[in-house]
Amino acid sequence: MMHKRYPAAALIDFANQVCMARGMAPGPARDVAEVLVEGDLMGHDTHGLQLLTPYLNSLASGAMAGDATIDVIASRAVTETWDGHYLPGPYLVRRALERATQMAREYGTGTIAIRHSSHIGALAAYLEAPAREGFMVQLVCSDPSVASVAPFGGSQPLFTPNPMAWGIPTSSVPIMIDISASTTTNGMSDRLHKAGQLGEHSWWLDADGQPTSDPAVLTAKPPGSLLPLGGLDAGHKGFSLALFVEAMTAGLAGHGRADQPETWGATVNLQVTDVEAFGGVSAFARQTDWLVEQSVANKPADPQNPVRVPGQRALQRKQEQLAEGVLLHPVIVPALKALAEDANVAFTF
């Protein structure tokens, strides 16, 4: 079955026009468009243009700010804390990446904590460019207004999936790690639920704490929860990672679940490290190149599925889709066409 492909540049231009038509300032609109399409390019299609509708709904309700000033509420030589006033997450993270990189160029490292950000999209979308320039990036976020993941041993939702990502330089293709502290994401759970599908494994708990492959438990009364990463056997590891992310985001930004916010968004921590300031770029790449080479050369348990380094397939998919066009998940195109009609923007490509 043939599926239509869409030029990435046209998708970016379309999303940019729709965002501005709905009242978003040009700078934030462009960042939202580029970051969401980057997610689709790499295959993170629950965190690509699928998010455009909820972003614009958030903008229409006033939960997301179309334009505002970022306030720096704490600052030292290599750290800053920002109040983002619920500006679009892609705009805030890109500005934080610029600022933290400036710090890293001068001091070797830079860290920005952000409170009151809107949703930031796929974390992997921010990693490639700085990693190719010799900067290691750590990005983590939580959403203090949402609870969907149970702590290990519990049965009631407490955390979000609390994603964490690292961009790691090599002498060629960077290592790009993007994982969450839960077995799956809210976005994938919602997609499966709307399609009436089950998960491949028992990724959820019902309200009584019993494992299930049915994502519908998340919307039951009372709600079930996502299992932490590691599941029933080793979920203490995902629980521990969730606590780490909460400390790095809510703790350092000074805003989190203890405040019981109701606005959908994110609390973010971004750190940039200039590897040249430590052992040097060549020495760093010598180590990471060796690890990549030995990993992919490792004898596979299944010859049909050789070892892949994190980010390898995503970047291959990105290059393929830049050349051939972006394959959008079937649920996304009707939503984009509805946005086009509402905003009086053409969707004709």
In short:
By secondary structure, the protein is α+β, with helices and mostly antiparallel strands.
Task: Provide the fold topology.
Blueprint: E1 5-6, H1 8-21, H2 26-41, H3 52-61, E2 71-76, E3 79-87, H4 89-107, E4 109-117, H5 128-132, E5 135-142, E6 164-168, E7 175-179, H6 186-194, E8 204-205, E9 211-212, E10 225-226, H7 231-253, E11 266-274, H8 281-296, H9 312-324, E12 326-327, H10 332-343
Parallel strand pairs: 3-4
Antiparallel strand pairs: 1-12, 2-3, 4-11, 5-6, 5-11, 6-7, 8-9, 8-10
User: Into how many domains do the coordinates divide?
Assistant: 1
Order of helices and strands: EHHHEEHEHEEEHEEEHEHHEH
Would you identify the CATH architecture?
A: 2-Layer Sandwich
Mean pLDDT: 97
Per CATH, the superfamily is: Malate/L-lactate/L-sulpholactate dehydrogenase, NADPH binding domain
Q: Determine the structural class based on helices, strands and strand pairing.
A: alpha+beta
Number of helices: 10
Give the low-pLDDT segments.
none
Major sheet details: 7 strands, mixed
Q: What is the spatial order of strands in the main beta sheet? A: 2-3-4-11-5-6-7
**CATH fold descriptor:** Ribosomal Protein S8, Chain: A, domain 1
Q: Hey, roughly how much beta strand do the residues contain? A: 15-25%
Roughly how many Å is the radius of gyration?
Answer: 20 Å
CATH C-level class: Alpha Beta
How does this structure look, described?
By secondary structure, the chain is an alpha+beta fold. It has a single domain, classed as Malate/L-lactate/L-sulpholactate dehydrogenase, NADPH binding domain (Ribosomal Protein S8, Chain: A, domain 1). It is 39% helix and 17% strand. The strands form three sheets. It has a seven-stranded mixed sheet with strand order 2-3-4-11-5-6-7, sandwiched between helices. Helix 4 links the parallel strand 3 and strand 4. The chain is globular and about 55 Å long. The protein starts with a strand and ends in a 6-residue tail after the last helix. 48% of the residues are buried. The mean pLDDT is 97.
